[in-house]
Amino acid sequence: MSQRDKNRARTRRDIETASLELFESQGYHATTVEQITRLAGCSSATFFRHFRSKEDVLFANDEAAAVELARFVQERSDRSQTLGAVAEPVAMFAQSFLVEANSDAQRLTRLVMTTRELEARSLRMRLKWEHAVARAFCVEDGRDKPEFDHMLLASLTVSCLSTALWHWQEPGGSDDIRHETKRAFDTAQRLTARGVD
Fold this sequence. Notes:
Blueprint lengths: L2 H24 L6 H8 L3 H7 L3 H5 L3 H13 L8 H18 L4 H10 L4 H22 L7 H22 L7 H20 L1
Helix pairs in contact: 1-2, 5-6, 5-8, 6-9, 6-10, 7-9, 8-9, 9-10
C-alpha cells in the first residue's frame, strides 16, 4: 500500500470515528457534516470524496457485505438448501466480516438498528443481502433467476442474521455474534418444526 493510500485510509477512518462519536453523543439527526469534519480535522470536500452523505458513513460496506454473505453461503460444506446448512456459514460471515474486520461493528450496528432516520436504508441493505443469497441458491440449481423457494430461504436466512444482530447490539447482550447467529438459526428451526407438528 502506497503512502497516499495509507493517508486516504487514515482520513477515512478519522471521519468514521468522528461520525460515530457525534452520532452517539448528540444523535444522528442533530449531527451535521460540518461537525463531523471539524472533529475529524478535514474539510467538507475531503468528506465528500470518501462519502456521499453522513448516512453513507454507516453503510459504507453494504455492497461488500452482500457479496461476502453470498460467498460464505456458496462455500458451505453442506450443499443442501436448508436453514441448518446455512447456519454455520452465516455465523462465520457475521464473525469475520462484521466483527473481526471492524472494531466498531457493535456500535455501528446499534446506531443502524435504533435510529428511525436510518430504517429505510437499513431495509434496503437487508434486501440486498436477501437478493444476494437467493441468487447464490439459484445459481446452485442452474436457474436463470431466483424462484419462490430460493427467495423464501434467503429471507429466512437474513431474518435469522438480523435477529442475532439485534440481540448482539443491545446493551448488556452477548458479545459473541457467532453464537447469537447460530442460536437464531436453531430457534427458527425449532419454531418451524413445532409449527409442522
